[in-house]
User: Fold this.
Amino acid sequence: MSVEAGSRALLADGDVVLVRPLHPADTAEVLALHTRLTQQDTYFRFFGARPSGLGKLVAEMAAEPGPGHYAVGCYRRGELVGVANYEVLKDTADAEVALVVDASVRKLGVATLLMEHLVSHARKVGLKRFLAEVLAENAKVLHVFADLGLRFEASIGGPERDVVMNLDEDPAYLDAVLKRDSVADAASLAHVLEPSSVAVIGAGRRPGSVGHAVLANLVASGFPGPVEAVNPHAEEILGVPSVPSVAALSRTPELAVVCLPAPAAAEAVEACGKRGVRAVVVISSGLTGTEAGDRVRAAVRAYGMRLVGPNCLGVLSTDPARPMNLTFLAGQVKPGNIGVVTQSGGVGIALAESLNDLGLGMSALVSTGDKYDVSGNDLLMWWAADRRTELAVLYLESFGNPRKFSRLARRLARTRPVLAVRSGSGDTAQRAAASHTAAAATPAVTRDALFEQAGVIAVDTVAELVDVIAGLSWQLLPGGPRVAVVSNAGGAGVLAADACEREGLVMAELSQDTRDRLAKLLPSEAAVCNPVDTTAAIAPEVFADALRAVLADDGVDAVIAATVPTAVGDPGTSLAAVLPPEYKTVFAVRPGQRARVAPLVPGRGVTACYDDPAAAAAVLARLVRYEQWLNRPEPAESVAPLGDPVALRAFAAGREGWLSPADAVELLRLAEIPMVETHYVEADDSMAAAAADLGSPVVLKADADGLLHKTAGGGVLLNVHGADRILEAFRTLRSRFGSALRGVTVQPMAEPGRELLVGVRSDPVFGPLVVFGLGGVDTDLIADHAARLAPLTEADADLLLDGLRSSKALWGSGLDRAAARELLLKVSRLAELVPELAELDLNPVRVRSDGCVALDVRARFEPDVSADPFLRRLRD
Assistant:
């Protein structure tokens, strides 16, 4: 739901409030709020540029919010508890701000929340600064302004302070907003994962129903707080008191779980809201898309509750201080350090069983189901403050706010691994490919770029997920990509080496000292180079010594030890005596073992043992990439200068659809993106004057309806010399394309170089994606692309340049990498500054040893309807 219609948001204590714009009909409520304040309560009194601030606001509210003023209010349980507004100063991009907050919500962050909504709206309409005059003794409101995270200045001395807040985009402000969001979100999720009391609504009397299973699991989990059931046909179920309705409960539960058919579930949620329940878990299915589902949403909004589900498996926590299993899983879950959020109940069940088989446990599980409210972003914020969770796992079928997800996941991944199962990779709903960039920027590519930039370890199946969890649970992250393979079966060693190379790992070169040590330990027929083949006819203790020798090599970061039992002995039994090493990662492989992955030593783990070398190599490669991401410095987001931002915004205003070639060239000029000199001649105009002024040789490019691939479609004529030939070429294109020809672009022939593609494809949910790859005729022939979400950091730009299959050869040929890097940063900045830019295709970009220049450009604009992804608000 848009901010204009009102948004649910969280206060610092986790309480849910409604923030919405104020209108003339709200004037009486604003006056009522002011009359509740005392003269002594200076912090919460109205302030502004003049003492008559309240009167000004009431007068402004006599008209609907417009470009010159805007007011927003915060409602807590239906009562207005705070108001903030701004008034634009005439002929400036500055606005005066004012604020009033009820004393009953002191220290809960209402003032800050309202200011964040003002900032978001002001940026949207192009304001640059907020101004205010504040009494010197009003220190608390000065702290509100200073702590927002904006660049802030306040005068010193005198009875009043002149305050200036700069509204420019600033990563520090986003970090401050997310920090406040995380504190509030964790407080609200405590009602879900750490409730003091629980009610199970729809608890069945007999086994076989979901409600009975949920109550049985809760009782078995040892939840220490009060528990009641709601069932009109029983006074007691599983030893738990039962009452006929929510209204009849002996106390108001902090958390309620609803296990009823859809219509009855909606009624139960409404009853929970009226009773004052803080959170509900709706396991019931069949609500989405129905009137009952709409009633559930309305109740959650009206009563300020948090909601998990509907259509979900439930929630559980293994916190020893307050264990709680409110799922219909088959049995209890082992306590552990793995946090799980999943949209699919089936994935949650499969993962719980797999982890149990490995002897691993969960810290918490939240099944979001149809995700009316609580989502993956909520859990990312919860885990950031949860010391018990050391590994976060996500299965997400959709992203409500991917840009916020990226920032949250990146922050969490810096402290613990974050894993995600990719879903929807098939992309059955492909966008129409209106350009080469659009063809490369599929939803799967966008999602993968999101995961990669955020440091998320992505897998494609639950089996792969379990493989990686096992690897992370029992071993250190590898110190680098150099891998050695040690095996007593030559074939297994070769397969492991092949798998490592396929995964992009580096087969380590063993030092001469290591090879000499191995030669003394092993039979003469053994292979002492990597992969090391000890031969099958050695004792387990000899294999262990060989493994120690390889681990001691400074050129080895990780080892895959593949063993098979023989009549001479089983080297696999010796690995536990060697592992874990203090500083190297080691995975075991035992071809033929029954489980895909298992602990090397049951009950102790030590390391993960896989049934196939390819599985071990795949896990190792993912861990190496995560370690490299962790070691990558975190540069500030790019603030590359970009021509004249004001002129760019003016250029973008009101545009929609594909730009004409001339306008597309003008867009690049304003952004100071290098473009070859370009002349455009309308199809009905005469080429004679232009031909007389143009040097030789030139290239003519047709601009025709339906012509996407100009070269393949016969729309490019190269090396045209002289005015007569230019006129002839112009006539040829008019004849070839007839009435479809809109005009012809004429450019001087560019100097030779490598042709690349740089483009932008903007998604209304994910934001702009920057695509880089081979261009020109190679674009479709080779399809060598890389993509990352804007805004690009300098490190992101480098990773794009190095992300092609051809990158090593490309940049090893003397091309100007610095110029290409600067181009990527400028294109990213353009996409940020002009959100209306839906599609940009620079293809080809000619890169030489002394710079780069775009030879062709296509650009498409759409109205910007995107919401502020970092404004604090809950799903609605």
